[in-house]
Amino acid sequence: MGFELDRFNGDVDPDFKCNLCNKVLEDPLTTPCGHVFCAGCVLPWVVQQGSCPVNCQRISTKELNHVLPLKSPQPPR
Ligand SMILES: [Zn+2]
Ligand SMILES: [Zn+2]
């Protein structure tokens, strides 16, 4: 999962990279401990391991929250 970096011009902020696939976050989910991963990376991990993929604390899938996508913001109405 995740986008290939060469689809983006220039440098990519490391904050927008997934620690599991090392690619740009795709459909990012944030953990209660503040880590962010692709939904497709973190969901199977949390289901199996029951913890944050960087091993900082135990979490459940219910604690994962969607963060704003990196795409263009909603136009004002
Ligand atoms: Zn990922
Ligand atoms: Zn964490």
From TrEMBL:
Keywords: Metal-binding, Zinc, Zinc-finger. GO terms for molecular function: zinc ion binding. Pfam families: zf-C3HC4_2 (PF13923). InterPro entries: Znf_RING, Znf_RING/FYVE/PHD, Znf_RING_CS. The keyword Ligase does not apply. Residues 18-54 form the RING-type domain. This is RING-type domain-containing protein. It comes from Otus sunia.
